[in-house]
Amino acid sequence: MGRFSTMQTTARIRDRLPFLRRRARMVQAVRAFFEGRGYLEVETPYAVPVPGEEVHLRCFRTVLDHPDGTSEVRHLHTSPEFAMKRLVAATGQPLFQLARVWRNGERSATHMPEFTMLEWYRPGAALSSLMDETEHLLRSLLPPSLLYGEDDLDLSRPFERMTMQEAFARYVGVDLLSSAGDAARLACEAGVSLREGEDWEDLFFRLLLEKVEPYIGRERPTFLTHWPAEQAALAKRDPADPRVALRFELYAAGLELANAFEELTDPQEQRQRFEADRVRRMQITPEQDWPVDEAFLEALPDMPPTSGIALGFDRLVMLATGAPRLEEILWLS
């Protein structure tokens, strides 16, 4: 059985070689792109005391043993975000990283428990500037047009930019922001039944998943921008409309590729958001308990105005190769 399993693994790797060679060239191209724009490549720890503050992500847990016999809990990070922002605060430099990240319990055609995240942070950049840069990156890595599944994607045209308010008006037929916090009203206007225990945020994500995401980014990549402030996470609120956060996600050919913020640098507001997220996380997965990242909060006042983005590199390779499943562009899975 062991010999047969080894032969199967060898055959799978050989079958993947064209995809894997393309992946390797894309890694080289990413580094050339950012180095040509004055970015510094960094490496941050993977096993950390605080893996992130996302409510719905599950983390891998381990224990760090010290030579004196003491030990500390560590987690494999879900993103290098906190560490990279501390480096931006310390250096003021534009930074990028191709990082391995871990999210427990995730496995599907487009999800794996371990994968590669491309993150970069540019001081002085507004969200619109970061969208411009992201467009340039994708055009440097992908052909002007490509067929992925049934989608004929045109990257030669400017990427679509659509606010969340516009998307819900177009695809759901509702005034999203005016219903904020009122789940019953949003359900009524959307023509759906409110499920038991479903609050406004739950319904927002259900409608986004079922009625918006399937239709955007099909002919050309789409930036979905200006998310409701309830989903601000680590993003600033828009000074022109505090109902929304300066955040975008990027979609292409049915794949969610990236999530970006114009970064919040107010430590008091960020602490309040962390504490609110912690309450919700403990209700869902009480075993996922860790302290607030004080080092990150202490660094925030020194961080210049910055925009940052996390892009799923493996999904970008899927687009480039046409691979239908993420595991097909991984060396081992």
State the gist of this model:
The protein is an alpha+beta fold and 333 residues long. Helices cover 37% and strands 25% of the residues. The chain has a single domain (2-159, 220-329), classed as BirA Bifunctional Protein, domain 2, CATH 3.30.930.10.
Characterise this structure.
The protein has 333 residues and is of the alpha+beta class. The protein has one domain (2-159, 220-329): BirA Bifunctional Protein, domain 2. Helix content is 37%, strand content 25%. The chain has helices at residues 2-36, 81-91, 127-141, 164-171, 183-190, 200-212, 267-284, 294-299, 313-321, and strands at residues 40-41, 47-48, 60-65, 71-76, 95-102, 114-123, 145-148, 151-154, 160-163, 222-228, 237-238, 241-252, 255-262, 306-312. The strands form three sheets. Strands 1, 5, 6, 9, 10, 11, 12, 13 and 14 form a nine-stranded mixed sheet that branches. Strands 2-4-3 form a three-stranded antiparallel sheet, with no helix packed on it. A two-stranded antiparallel sheet has the order 7-8. The protein starts with a helix and ends in a 12-residue tail after the last helix. The mean pLDDT is 94. InterPro entries: Aa-tRNA-synt_II, aa-tRNA-synth_II, aa-tRNA-synth_II/BPL/LPL, EpmA, Lys-tRNA-synth_II_C. Residues 23-333 form the Aminoacyl-transfer RNA synthetases class-II family profile domain. It comes from Bombella favorum.
